[in-house]
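Hey, can you fold this one?
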Amino acid sequence: METEVPLRKIIHVDMDAFYASVEQKDDPSLKGKPLAVGGGSKRGVVAAASYEARTYGVRSAMSGYLAKQKCPDLIFVKPRFERYKEISLQIREIFREYTDLVEPLSLDEAYLDVTENKTGIPSATLIAREIRDQIYTKTGLTASAGISINKFIAKIASDLNKPNGQKTIPPEAVPQFLQALEIRKFYGVGRVTAEKMHNLGIFTGSDLLRKTPEFLETHFGKSGRHYYQVVRGIHLSPVQPRRSPKSVGAERTFSENLSSEVFMLDRLSAIAAELESRLKPKKRAGKTITLKIKYSDFRLHTRSKTLPYYISTASMVLEIAKELLYQEPLQNSVRLLGISLSNLNTEKTTNEPAENAVQVQLKFDF
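Sure. Predicted structure:
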């Protein structure tokens, strides 16, 4: 007996090269030039690249050194996250003119459920176009959008006509679209998983569709069931306006490697203070503290401790971080330190003992 899958009208809005586009908007002299946000220092990493830079192969998460090699004329600018957040909030206000079901994924992208919306416009395609027009009118920036029956397909679709475009996958087109799709383009399938699938003879959605749930779970564990469902257009995750983070963290990369725990304590104090400042506005606290250490040879180690109570203050976080730092000898000099807090509370309680704490298928046009 098959389960009837609810259809929704989901829009995924993704700003085009957001950070870089903001910089080009605020400084017209940068328009049309290859630009990278971040990445300018010796150990810098590119946070975002303009489309002009992308034509040279410059991508986010690439080292600034490699980016400069690929594009000698590349211009680096320092990130201005407060400015990006300011514009992001303007964009979210536009979203809420249409629906309260908005799930931000980051400053530059979000899911919207417009199955029922504030404007009464029956077409999700028209709503997406209106939203993109409003974003351009109010911010001078372009956005792309994907429209379909669930978040998974909308996310894939938003990338198909970038920049400044949109793509609708209506219900009747979903099976053919997914079957023809290269497996690497399935959202969430990274390079390693794609290579594993290729070795198993899975190159397209059509190949994936022929695999049994037992086969997929054998080779991909719990993710196998996910792959079995999404290639059939089944993705039941709703748009969640108040999506809670699983962890909150802060970290620092140092211009010079640190070789002694003594030199690291001052850095950890600053990181703990930054972590507290991120927790306080959200009234969050956590029980599991994780210390992240990246050595100069790029090996990454983590050490964690779970407490029987929630903490959120810098002093308490630092106390546990120190304990974790001295837990075992350093294996090399250190280039990065980070602290994160997970196992977060759902109540607005801090530094206190922890408490043991049918949809109808819709028929509509897109």
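The longest strand covers residues 247-258. Let me know if you want another pass with a different chain boundary.
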